[in-house]
Design a protein that fits this description.
Elements: H1 10-21, E1 30-32, H2 41-71, H3 101-106, H4 109-117, H5 122-135, H6 140-148, H7 156-165, E2 176-178, H8 179-187, H9 192-202, H10 211-231, H11 242-259, H12 269-282, H13 296-310, H14 315-327, H15 333-341, H16 347-368
Parallel strand pairs: 1-2
Helix pairs in contact: 2-7, 4-12, 5-6, 5-10, 6-7, 9-10, 9-11, 10-11, 11-12, 11-13, 12-13, 13-14, 13-16
Biased composition (Low complexity): 48-61, 83-103
Biased composition (Polar residues): 15-26
Biased composition (Basic and acidic residues): 35-45, 65-74
Length: 369
């Protein structure tokens, strides 16, 4: 049987229009309501506009920096690893966190994999993250422009995020976010950083030129957000399920990249190693975060995505899913699929393996009975 088409139907498009026009807030999230789990043309247009604005903002930062260099004006931007932060608001990284922060970072499987994927030294990665942490979000664009020259430009995605945040005077475009995440954000605390990364993951274009570089940028931003949280002494707000959402977005990005038409890295073992690292890190996360009743649907999506994309199995995930099926009163694949469609669920890539995974869970339940 051929996989269902990813194109939303005419009725779905009409539903999307009525939903979006009913939002009174100018900055409210653009909710993706396609029953096929795909972006609408409107949401793609908004994401492209966001990218264009971010690129323009970064270009202005680059031109300003080049002008200062020509005129010999000292900059307040990037800091060398041994220099002192110029602003009193900059907070140093706690020395109690670890006697060797670089080693601490590379103990995390995904960060260790990222270092190898992009040929970074642990010290270089640490210096980049420390600089970004010290100067704060307003100066990320300037910092990443300098740091990127040492790591092949993979910080472009962070520069784009900074560009969007550095222009508060302009009205911000809404984020194109699947409706499952907008509902989740109304129930529990989810950070804006996670929502931005979810939006970028959900609308990543695997068919355009330069896909590998852009995929590296997205993976870097998803993984580095966790690395920054490890080093900063400031507690980042948000529910603990954000860790599982981050892993699921990482897995889904790699999984789609391996299977997209025209992919240049479908058979590259280093990406399969990334999925293995993601699974290893998922096993280290707090399982209690997935037991929150208010985020049951998101827990179902995250566990399904992590399990299906990595191909790994664990009894505690099986038991968790069986409990979620009972709590959400899910008795058929059709009901489970409807929940997955509310999140990031590219049908042509995931429908068959997710249904097979559901069938295997049902078989295990019957066998146990």
């Amino acid at each position: 049987m051929s996989p269902p088409s990813d194109k939303p139907s005419q009725e779905e498009g009409q539903d999307q229009t009525s939903q979006s026009t009913g939002q009174p807030s100018r900055n409210a999230p653009l909710v993706i309501v396609s029953e096929r789990g795909r972006h609408s043309d409107e949401s793609r247009r908004i994401v492209r506009a966001q990218a264009a604005r971010a690129s323009a903002a970064q270009s202005r930062v680059t031109r300003a920096r080049n002008r200062e260099e020509r005129e010999g004006v000292p900059k307040d931007g990037p800091l060398s690893p041994g220099s002192t932060a110029p602003t009193p608001s900059a907070e140093p990284i706690s020395p109690e966190a670890s006697s060797n922060p670089a080693s601490q970072l590379t103990e995390h499987p995904l960060i260790k994999w990222l270092v190898g994927l992009m040929d970074l030294s642990p010290a270089g990665l640490l210096n980049s993250i420390q600089t970004l942490t010290l100067v704060g979000p307003a100066a990320v664009g300037a910092v990443t422009s300098t740091v990127a020259s040492g790591i092949g430009g993979v910080l472009g995605g962070l520069s784009s995020l900074a560009g969007m945040q550095s222009e508060p005077a302009r009205p911000q475009l809404p984020q194109a976010v699947p409706r499952g995440f907008t509902t989740l954000q109304q129930r529990i605390q989810i950070s804006d950083t996670v929502i931005v990364l979810v939006s970028r993951t959900s609308c990543f274009d695997f068919g355009s030129p330069g896909v590998e570089e852009r995929l590296h940028q997205l993976l870097f931003d998803i993984i580095i957000s966790h690395a920054k949280a490890l080093l900063t002494p400031i507690l980042v707000p948000g529910h603990a399920i954000q860790g599982h959402l981050r892993i699921a977005c990482t897995c889904l990005t790699i999984f789609q990249g391996q299977r997209a038409n025209g992919s240049v890295f479908a058979h590259d073992s280093k990406y399969q190693t990334g999925l293995e690292a993601a699974w290893s890190e998922a096993t280290l996360l707090d399982l209690n975060a997935l037991a929150e009743p208010k985020s049951a649907e998101a827990s179902l999506w995250a566990v399904f995505i992590i399990s299906v994309t990595t191909g790994a199995t664990a009894n505690y995930f099986h038991q968790l899913l069986q409990g979620l099926f009972q709590d959400l009163q899910l008795r058929s694949w059709f009901q489970v699929r409807n929940i997955l469609l509310d999140f990031i669920y590219p049908v042509s890539f995931l429908d068959e393996p997710c249904k097979s995974y559901f069938d295997s869970l049902q078989s295990m339940q019957i066998g146990a009975a």
